[in-house]
Amino acid sequence: MLIFLDTADINSIKKGIEYYPIAGVTTNPTIIAKENRDYLDLLKDIRKVIGEEKMFHIQVLATKAENIIKEAHFIKDTIGGNIYIKIPVIREGIKAIKMLKEENFKITATAIFTPQQALVAALAGANFVAPYVNRLDNISGDGVKVIRQIKKLFDTYNLDSKILAASFKNVEQVHKSSLEGAHSVTLPLEVLENLLHHPLTDSSVEAFIKDWKTAYNQTYLID
């Protein structure tokens, strides 16, 4: 299991990298636009924060294969490091995935809402497929069920592509997706931090400290 940060906020990325086992960062045009600054400077700053080795998933904006390929080269050449090009699973996107894989690009197929979209993307050569969990749930779909079915298809046909589950709003969605075999998840920092939160954990820590202080009149092991 890999955990990614789904954000372009530099402070959130710094905090996430400091405290948690983060494999990398994922972005999309909407996430980047929210930061309201020059996008290239932002992407370069993110790369500086996470380093060259961590995975950085950056999405193209073009919708024609030849332009998708141009943007992919631009992203790779400009940002550098361990780059994954995010490409939506439209017809032109699948064509671009096939062509870019011939050039040894690493690809994340995105905007996935059905198991068959994921299957086609994997057969085209995508390293990751990114199904949107919460967006499906919001239209009375079942994002976790889609992950389960994608995992079954990949196992049945022995495909190397990995599931990068995306679009989460709560811990339960993350938990269920993990149980269904998602190889990785990408989360806003708030959702990631909520994975650790439980009131009994907090009260247990408080009790440990209280009992220690009662016995030893201090709240630490060593000075």
Automatic annotation (TrEMBL):
It holds the Pfam family TAL_FSA. The keyword Cytoplasm applies. Its main location: cytoplasm. PROSITE patterns: TRANSALDOLASE_1. One of its GO terms (cellular component) is cytoplasm. GO terms for biological process: carbohydrate metabolic process. It comes from the Bacteria. GO terms for molecular function: aldehyde-lyase activity. This is Fructose-6-phosphate aldolase 2. It comes from Tepidimicrobium xylanilyticum.
